[in-house]
Amino acid sequence: MEDSGTVRHRSMDEIMEGLHRVRRSPRGVGTLALVVRRPDLGTREVLSRAELDPVAGLVGDSWNQRPSSRTPDRSPHPDMQVNVINSRFVELIAGPDHDAWALAGDQLYVDLDLSVDAMPAGTRLAIGDRAVIEVTEEPHTGCAKFAARFGTDAHKIVWTDEGKRLRLRGLNARVLVGATIEPGDTVRQLPAVPGPAADRTGDDPPPAGAAR
Fold it and tell me: Is 4 helix (H, G, I), strand (E, B) or coil?
């Protein structure tokens, strides 16, 4: 699927009217609604099953080929492997068509509270039976393409104080434990890991649902 399409641009009034559903997103436990792979610039694949990998991110995605302005040598940023966005917000600005959702350019679309309060950097999320990702500090910001596809009002609202607090544009994450995932999988927040740096160089994180 080409990613050059657009959807009907919702007005600020329409977005604000529906924002209450985003505010009511489940906290702690939610659902993986959609998985999208970007095999190359300008293309999207909506997947019924996908593989997460600590090195590759979403297997088959072009993250590891995309230069980053946030690294000294412009190599792909390791803390921006996977983009996660709230599915209720995407539906609000794009409608129910999953192909339209995919235009956002994120890989994981979840029905879950992604707000800064609910999910600070270092939060770990278990997806399905085993996969685990970790929220990173790198901000996920809107761009000109986002505005072109979903409208200037959708772009403006992600930059409001509430939009940033709710992380309407989504968040960045890295893969800690690789596994197969698919839409419909449960996404649940794991207990906080005590100590500095959240074991970044220590033991592997536990499988989803395992006690620490």
Answer: coil
